[in-house]
Design goal:
Helix content: 25-40%
Number of strands: 8
Order of helices and strands: HEHEHEHEHEHEHEHEH
Distance between the termini: 49 Å
Radius of gyration: 19 Å
Strand order of the largest sheet: 1-2-3-4-5-6-7-8
């Protein structure tokens, strides 16, 4: 076990011990052995940053509150931004050495298919048919030509297609592919499959237990993304007091600062401007709250260096020649 004099303090630990309610000791066997390349066990992400104006709010607020940011992601999609808007976002994030991740193409919820609106939510957010996959590829090529280095995907076929495109030089080799929470894996076997399909960062649903994270880390070291606070359409979970243990179990881990009790903003347009800017600002504040909590518990060490973005060596399926 870690020396108790240097180990992070668990929430309420001293008060509960004084009351005879001490928690069981943590098991070293539960801890993830993995880190990001270049060092560090966690990075930060501000999601749902839907355009240059929202990005400017996030950057200003992160400076004001001293919230370090490794990645900023957008959810409406490449197709909802003009070339000028994408370029502005690329330049603004590059200036701060922050990774920008844009969502690719059509998804089932914006398609004419009815199954996603049924009680079973059949097909979900996946790309329906050849044309939807083609739209995602079109978005990927366009975005990377404009300087975007990270793409967000919500379909296994799109992921595999873009990984092959990356390996064959159709999109830049340095492009990273991030799997959306909307299709996130819920078991270690599925997580390992996404890694082998080309994922560099995999968003798991925020309702996975701590034991689930340990199970995943026994089969894969691919970076994991998790909402510390999830939007309502993803469950609205708030796991603030578990942040230190989420890092211990799930590293290398992106801490995503989402926002519950907020209306959806996808696909974004000017009619949602005030809501989008207000929620962008509040997401950064939520990040400050989580970082303050880590600091109070002495668990704020091991953050990956700012500007780091690559996932390290990962396992892949062979690509047909």
């Amino acid at each position: 076990m870690t020396d108790s004099a240097t180990a992070p303090r668990r929430p309420g630990e001293q008060a509960l011990a004084a009351l005879g309610l001490r928690a069981p000791d943590l098991s070293p066997a539960d801890a993830s052995p993995h880190t990001f390349p270049g060092g560090g066990r966690w990075r930060t992400e501000i999601p749902s940053c839907e355009g240059p104006e929202a990005l400017a709010v996030v950057l200003k607020e992160s400076s004001r509150l001293d919230v370090p940011i490794h990645r900023i992601s957008q959810g409406s999609g490449v197709w909802m931004l003009t070339d000028a808007e994408i370029t502005e976002m690329v330049e603004a994030t590059a200036e701060r050495d922050i990774e920008l991740c844009l969502f690719t193409g059509p998804r089932g919820t914006w398609d004419i298919g009815a199954s996603v609106r049924s009680d079973s939510r059949g097909a979900g957010l996946r790309a329906r048919g050849h044309d939807a996959v083609a739209g995602c590829v079109e978005d990927a090529v366009r975005a990377t030509e404009l300087g975007v280095k990270c793409l967000l995907v919500a379909d296994e076929g799109v992921l595999w297609t873009l990984h092959q495109a990356r390996e064959k030089g159709i999109i830049p080799a340095e492009t990273t592919l991030k799997v959306s929470a909307l299709i996130g894996p819920v078991n270690p076997a599925a997580y390992a499959v996404y890694e082998r399909l080309g994922a560099d960062s995999i968003n798991v649903p925020s309702d996975l237990t701590l034991d689930h994270l340990t199970e995943i880390r026994r089969v894969s070291g691919a970076p994991m993304d998790m909402y510390i606070e999830a939007p309502d359409d993803l469950g609205g979970y708030v796991r603030m007091y578990e942040v230190a243990e989420l890092i211990r179990r799930g590293a290398p881990l992106y801490l995503k600062f989402g926002l519950s009790k907020a209306p959806g903003i996808y696909p974004y347009g000017h009619h949602l401007r005030e809501l989008t800017l207000a929620t962008a600002k509040e997401r950064v504040r939520r990040g400050r709250l989580a970082l303050d909590l880590l600091a109070r518990h002495g668990a704020d060490g091991d953050m990956a260096p700012l500007g780091s973005r690559l996932p390290g060596s990962l396992n892949r399926f062979d690509i047909p020649s």
